[in-house]
């Protein structure tokens, strides 16, 4: 029979499940809050960041100076602004290498881009939003662009709606309750009944359509990817100007996207619904 020391999970202390404040390093938590907010703003001055986060400029400077020494953030002297640094990108890239999803998706994304002539995207669910993790851009001058690391609300995203269509209704309701149904354009689905009806159509036809719901003039067609338990864990999509994705082309493009999602599901050992 193993001793208590032997049976304890490696890398975790005895009280690893204790989420109380005593186990939180406040300075580190504050630094992570600053880093997350800086990534959302895309670059800002010290004074603006202090006002945005409610922290003092002196405290923020110490946090930013420490992160800069590690290459996590950068300072632009010309504009007196702080930005996410190259080291943050490297750490994020290592997260993507944890799974074979991105690697296995790349050839399928490339083929999907060639088949449709539009930008192909891969996204996963992350804290009730869509996190774009890979993209293959088309060669058109006007094209969709969702660089890896971009977050998008689920209700106004092709991939987001493809995922919502296949989660339990209680989980879907919880996501909506947490993030709301913000209006981005006149086409955004901003009430529960309209969204629910659209999710039902997605399940019936096998793919989702973002019909200028996030950005006017842009459409996105997406389908879900499933794991071995039959749970939707990611989504593939093609995005482009609505003029190049007219109504009459949507069934054919939707079929191609759904087929690509099924192929990736199978390559991952998943079980499509």
UniProtKB/TrEMBL annotation:
Stretches for region Disordered: 1-22
PROSITE patterns, alphabetized: HTH_ICLR (PS51077), ICLR_ED (PS51078)
Keyword tags: DNA-binding
Domain IclR-ED: 87-270
Residue span, HTH iclR-type domain: 25-86
Entry-linked InterPro entries: HTH_MetabolicPath_Reg, TransRegBhcR, Tscrpt_reg_IclR_C, Tscrpt_reg_IclR_N
Protein name, as recorded: IclR family transcriptional regulator
Organism in which the protein naturally occurs: Thalassococcus arenae
